[in-house]
Design a protein that fits this description.
Layout (H helix, E strand, L loop, with lengths): L8 E5 L17 E7 L4 E6 L4 E6 L8 E7 L1 H10 L5 E6 L5 E6 L2 H7 L10 H8 L1
Antiparallel strand pairs: 1-5, 2-5, 3-4, 6-7
InterPro entries: AH_C, GGCT-like, GGCT-like_sf
Protein name: Allophanate hydrolase C-terminal domain-containing protein
Pfam families: AH_C (PF21986)
Amino acid sequence: MSDASPTAKRVFICGSALRGQPDHQNLQSATFLGEAKTAPNYRLHAVKDGWHPGIYATETSGISIPGEIYELTPEQYDYLVSTEPPDMYPAKVDLENGEQAIAMLYPQKLIEENGYPDISEIGGWAAYKQQSS
C-alpha cells in the first residue's frame, strides 16, 4: 500500500471485475498494482450458470488462481462489496508471493449443494468466459 493512503485495502480480483471484463467499472478508479496469483490453495467454480466466479480455500487439490491486485480507498472498497452477488463475502487470501490480499469468496457448501462446475483447470475466469462465449 502507498504511504499516502494507510487505510487503503489491497484487493485480489479474479472475476468479472478484471480488466476487460464487464464489471471492471465496479473498481471505479482503483489503483492497479499488477497481476498476481493465489497460493495453490483454492478452487474456482462457475456459479449460477456462469454468472460469476466462486472461489474458496481448500486443503487438498488447490490451484493458483490468476488475477489482479488493486489498491482501493475505503469508499471504493465499500462500493465494490455492495456490487457483489449474493452469498459472496470478503476474506483474506494467500498470494503466490507470500503476501495476502482481500478477495471475494463464495461458500464451498453452496457450490457443492448446487453442483456448480469446477473450472479451476481452465486458466482463470477470463479464460473461462472467453471459452464459453
